[in-house]
Amino acid sequence: MSTTSERVPFVEAQFLEDLEKASRELEAPYDEKVLKEVINAYGELMYDAAIQVRGSNHEGVPLLFRVLMATPADTIDIALRRGWLHPDQPLVGLVKAARAHFEGTIDEPEFTVDKGCDGMFLYLGGLRDLAEVLGIPGMPDVIRAHREAFERLRLDKIVTVHFQYPQELISFYFLAQGPISKKALDEAIALSGAPPATDALYKDIVGVLLEEPYYLNVIMDYRTGRIIRVEVQLLFPVKLPPEMEIPEIGERLATFWDMPSHEYEDMDMLTYNFGDTHLGSVFGLRSYCGGLRNLLRDWEIIGA
């Protein structure tokens, strides 16, 4: 995958150049005007944040980047003042309720390089029990109704909640521990209504996972509660162990990982998607700058 490279501070011109070049090589949508508007709004925060970029194995899917911060800032207010969000949007109210429900939350906004404001991760200030998260005031009952199914699969510890504004989606990022059996993987995948993983795909996943922790992400429709996608997100260590088996990721993701990383320690991730895969069946996530691995260490979650 990636190699360790020297970290440099966030540099706007370099960021624009790197994302434009990567988008061009992937033949993916890109709008420099939109990107500059985002940097104008959030640039001060970006200089002190870790930046992560996501690519897809599907054609035509724009790059997406996340601004992962170590200290709190009201990124919702910035988006409201810019007119990118409206106070009456239901997810805006739910984000604010979640902030009030937990101590130590931190906004982690995300943007596509063609349309801008897309969503937000809310770091919950540490690992939280499923019951605590479902207890957020305003959490829809159709989502609370999944509690028994999650607990049956021992999905009960949540690191972040992901809100996707245009699509009105809520995702729970469960912390899980490898290894994972084929039966357990298929039971998790079944939440989305997707068929079981093939033996070859299961081999790809466990060849990277080994016995390490991982994220099991469940993406749900805010209004109906329907689980539209399940993601298995794997994290690569700085030094790959000899027993790790790197899967064939295809030309598009190989091109994506050619994008520069300005980090002392790279923090790469690979996400396998099940269910609605119109944005891609596999995502690659690349740390760009700002020390993402150190941020995860500070959070005392996986990735150290």
UniProtKB/TrEMBL annotation:
Any GO MF annotation of the entry: transferase activity
Stored Pfam families: PTase_Orf2
Domain of life of the source: Eukaryota
Protein known as: Uncharacterized protein
Organism: Cytospora paraplurivora
